[in-house]
Amino acid sequence: MTMPNFLVIGGARCGTTSLHYYLGEHPDIFMASHKDCRFFAMGDEPMPAYLEEDEPARARFDAMRRDAVLTPEAYRALFDEVADETAVGEATAFYLYHPRAPERIRRTIPDARLVAVLRQPAERAYSHYLARVRNGSIDRSFEEVLDAEDPADERVWAGQFHFIREGFYYRNLKRYYDLFPADQFRIFLFEELQGEPERLVRDICRFLGVRDDVPLDVAIRYNAAGRPKSQAINRLLMRRNPLKSAVKWLIPQSLRTRLRFRVMQKNAAEAEMAPDVRKRLIDVFRDDILRLQDLIGRDLSHWLR
What we know:
alpha/beta, 14 helices, 45% helix
């Protein structure tokens, strides 16, 4: 019976999907095919009582459970095809945010190595918003969704989306640092993944104990967010349709995935956050950023500009 010996724990909209696919190309690394399986976040998570009064949040909770791996048997089955790979892992961005995930991970795989990528939190929030606009789940302005969120509300499932709360990295990472030794972590910044993906992936390979000289294709930005240039193409990518069903039997899944994300990347137009909104968010995150840089030993002063 094989269990993972490393996890990519997040954060959301910080490049976790790209890392999942980059690492999965390495012959000495096995990545569970179920990206965002959420086992350590939702495996034994009952529906909170407060959701009975919050229909949108309850619907989101139910939708996430339907797409999650919920039992130990189903989780172990994700790794049934492990052969002789040295590093065995999975990537779930929600692990960084969920308050009980660190303890569940420590209880089950206490020696697992943990990888996280962190993005300037205002930019992360805006990318999160653009991703929800792209999939049709939000039709309000960014300012409106920020106004609707209470950053002090720590209930994981309260409200529809947590654009602000998922950016409090110090609060989220501190739970892991309280439970795991520092040598089990590698914390990277999103700008490193964007600017020097080859170097970052080589660093992770060394951390995982596998060869760092294997050429990997890091050209595609998987799950890139932006305002769709073409709504017709966006609808084709995001919704079920007969054409996609027909192609599924003709093109291998790995190639379909690469094609889909490449088209998504080409169809994503750059969208700038309004400067006043960025300043507003930096003010919200300032204290958390200052604490975070002490926790991880990185200079994050550029995040405050």
